Amino acid sequence: MKKIGVLSLQGDVSEHVSSMEKAVKRRELDASVEAVSSKEKLKDVDALVIPGGESTTIGKLIHIYGLAEVIRGLVDEDKPVMGTCAGMILLASRMEDNRYALDLMNLDVERNAFGRQRESFEKDINIKGFRGKYPAVFIRAPAIRRTWGVCEPMAEVDGRGVMAKQGNLIVLSFHPELVPDTRIQELFLGLLD
Ligand code: GLN
Fold first, then answer.
1. Pocket test for ligand 1, best of 112, 138, 175 (most atoms within 8 A of CB)
2. For residues 136 and 172, what is the distance between their CA atoms, to the nearest angstrom?
3. 20-29: pLDDT as tens digits
């Protein structure tokens, strides 16, 4: 049985667990989904989701608990990792104002690029390879300023990048765990061998 972990330090962890469980059922996979925060549990996952929340807080906690090396190890082993919103910020290579960026993707990210909390919005967007629009929810969302090399842009809103894929790493500015549509989670699960 495959184990899918949702990094549980801060942010919307339970929503990710339940939406991923729904996608696992739809795909009829033999997989469990659980919130993980200890080094031991994190080492043991076959795929990891880094949720939205407050990137500075999550980054600080990753640092305090010594989890950066474990996350790097998962990426080195080519295990699928998905970062949403704050999770995208943390996987990026470069960004202003976040010394906790893990520098795992060829991605330059701008925090709060679409405005503050009250400028949060929902928009039907086109995603590369998806049939029909996807209902994306943006909450104090970051944007992708630039990707390079093997990092592939997957979606944009008003000329700003909101989704990218680099091998088995996927990042999104928006929140797939908050909508009934599970196509993003299923795309992610499709990366498990
Ligand atoms: N703006 C937040 C940050 O910089 C991310 C928002 C989110 O994850 N919903 O951490």
1. 112
2. 10
3. 999 999 999 9
Q: Note whether 15 and 57 are within 8 A (CB).
A: no
The secondary element (H helix, E strand) that includes residue 189 is: helix 183-189
84 bridge partner residues? 172
Tokens of 86: 């704050």
pTM > 0.85: yes
Q: Answer yes or no: is the C-beta of 151 below 6 A from any ligand 1 atom.
A: no
- For residue 104 the two structure tokens come to 């795992």
* Active site (annotated) includes residue 151: no
**pLDDT for residue 118 is more than 90:** no
Q: Is 16 a catalytic residue?
A: no
- Count, residues in the chain: 193
Domains parsed from the chain with CATH numbers: 2-190 (3.40.50.880)
